[in-house]
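User: What would this chain look like folded?
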Amino acid sequence: MGRVLASVFLTGVMVSQAASALEDASAHWWAVKPVERPEVPLRAGDEWSQNPIDRFVDRALQNADLTPSPKADRCELIRRVYFDLIGLPPSADAVEQFANDTNPKAWSNLVEELLNSPHYGERWGQHWLDVTRWAESDGYRQDAFRPHAWPYRDYVVNSFNQDKRYDQFVREQLAGDEIAPDNPDVMIGTAYLRNGIYEYNQRNVEMHWELIVDELTSLTGEVFMGVGIGCAQCHDHKFDPIPQEDYYRLKAMLAPVSWKFDVPLATPKQKREHERQLQVWLEATKDLREQIDAIVEPQIKARQHAALIMFPEAIQAIFAMPKEQRTPYQQQLMDLANIQVEYERERFDETKSIKGEESEKLKQLRAALKAYDYLKPASLTPAFVASDVGRNAPKVLLKNRAGARDIDPGFLSVLEPASLPIQSPAHGNTTGRRSTLAEWLTDEKHPLTPRVIVNRIWLKHFKDGLVASPNDFGELGKAPSHPELLDWLASEFLASGWSFKHMHRLIVHSSTYQQTARREPGAKESETDPINRLLWRYPPQRLDAAQVRDAMLTVSGELDRSLGGPSVKGDRQRRSIYVRKIRNTPDEILKGFDSPTGFNSTPVRDATTTPGQALLLMNGDWILKRAQQFAGLLRSTLGDDVVAMVREAYQRCYGRHAGEAETHMAVTFLQDNRAEGDSLVDMCQMLLSSNEFLYLH
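Assistant: Here's the prediction, encoded as structure tokens.
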């Protein structure tokens, strides 16, 4: 008994010491401290600041003995805010109108027009898709196309256009099936849970599923909390107060996830109507279908059996079990393996596999069946979504030298050390774990969620975040450049009702945002703040891949501005967000300008300058076609007026008037090179390839 008491005492001491060490470490971790609204600094004689953002920035500049840059001119400002808010360049008419608008509310009116544009959601939805590593293919070797992944993209775009509260946006993606299982516009948010990589021919199903859930766990920590929790998968985090158990607590929240293949993207009413009409068709075609199945099904079943026996015996045994005898984990493994089994049905080609008399009979039966097509309802769009494997969760084991132990679901212990009781919802067939996680993340007292998202918003306006490592708010990440401004923005975001558009208004109406980018660093800036972290000017930046492609289509007059729907190939003229995103074989133009592939969360797109880009701009067929279309547009509207064509080309490309020297040089080029080919196409290609076109100031 004495030994038992001593053991209990020592265990208690060890737990107490561990808790004390965790508490001590968390006390120094700025990101997990409560968000408190700091007092806005005021400085006598400050005539530059327009809102609280400026006052925080002004104080940092004053402390560094730096001064802000002058305000950008109107041509610079309108091009900047157009690309920022809708990702497209302004028309020549829009630039001219804004440049000459004397209304004191001209800027506010312009901003509201852009925020209310349906193209706003396309631009800002793309940022979220980058962070959540969305793509339309499986990845790995086969990299099969996912034809029904696009509704999640449209859901994201629509959510931004509606200015959906961010807390609701988070809940829908983590647990839309538990929140509103009968609403397809909410349910589709759970595609977030299955946007990851899938290897079609992986026979080691246990390892494969483990990788899928581990990746989802790490991603969720990065996306919503800005925490590299994946570093704690194999051991306690080496730098942040995140013990290994925290990783498995969060993993247990997500472990019940199951990909769904039998859920249509439809309302209950649509499902009932479809089922009613389908039954009419099924009854009318019963005999024909049975005859067809008698010919086709044996061959499909044989191929499925051949696929099944490629799996380990343990997986084959799961298939042989009655469903009610499978554990939740076994059901997950079967569901994953069954994708390969069902693939045999999908790729079965009866024209190649069925010969002779059976082939002729099958053709006759198919023709007879087709006569009943008028009774068959159009198929409902399959929902690319996820839910839980059932009301019971699989075990999550933490394995180490001490053995293996079952871990209860929970959160980061630095914020919530206790394990919370979780009950399955009264409706549906889920565990309730994901909705519990979503509620915790969107509690207004959560210190990470609002800080992380306002930093992401700031990042897309200013090239860099206040925290330059948007997916890592830990010790290995970067400290905030303006910590009090970050907290003020986070508190303001909460006060606004988690509104993205409110944050945009604040930012673009600030003097900080409206500074010119056309100021070179002097000796003081070069020494004190060479990378402009304190924002003594607006940071010039290269357009990202989508902006480059979409701007070229806009300037050439070809852009198809239709919204939503299935994705298209890159040779079409739709916006880049609608171009098929295939992980291993991305579109040439988008790849050339650093569009992310979708293998990992990408909070910051690269902005490289490479010889390959220059060659693409000079020799690429797609670029040349845009130049030809651009030249044709100028000719069709301006005839042979060379001077007018030059001026219009500059206005469309750069959002400004051509200078006298530029006009003279371009006109001379066009006149002197007529014999060498189509000099107007050459000039258009040069403008589309120029730094002024490719960079935002």
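The longest strand covers residues 257-260. If you want, I can go into more detail on any region.
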